[in-house]
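WARN retry 2 of 3 for item q-0093 after timeout on previous attempt; input resubmitted unchanged.
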Amino acid sequence: MNTLPSPLLLPARTIAASGSVVSLATEASVFGPRGVIVHGRSLAVSGTLARLRSSTPAAITVGNYCHDGGEPTLDAVERLRACIREHPCDWVAAVGGGSVMDLAKAAAGLRDAPGTVASYQTGVPIPPATLPFIAVPTTAGTGSEATVVSVLTDPDRALKQSIRHPTFMPRLVILDADLLRSCPPHTLAASGLDAFVQAFESAISRFATPLTRALSELALVQISHSLTASQPSAHFRISPVSR
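OK item q-0093 returned
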């Protein structure tokens, strides 16, 4: 059995520190001085968007694009793709939950692609992405910041389907735990359960390797500790997964 999955795709660079979101524009400037931040309404309500804009150096130009909310649809990706084509940028950053990240990931990845977004859901080969994508998750659980996958909904076909390409992997990931503080309790609980289920699935997968299983079990233990810390009366125990 291989220790590492093959192939192993990971974000090029990850920053994990409280308060690190304010360094987004500075860190992203290695890709160029013009960027777009894709976000949800809650980022503005929480004041985080204002902090991001006030911490942007004068030499960097950053626009922002607000996602309407809900699951990312093909039309939503097309609208964002048209926006970043009309207003050229050197990088696109998603600051939000899984829907925001999948929306921005697909639009950035397909900015220079010749076909429609819908065509790439039906098997048309996706060309390599040329626009750097940056992911800043504001919830825990979707894992979109560490994958090459974008899950999109086509209401016309009543279909929810992913598109993917190795070049969709984020070039930079910023993990700022402080961003979770503004999450509503129900969102925090749902995303925590999402993280637990994904770690459990990975641990028992028949494609798991010693490395991925060890990381999955560590995630399960840490999530269980978080649960018992927030709910002292909860009785929750993780046992090692049987080999």
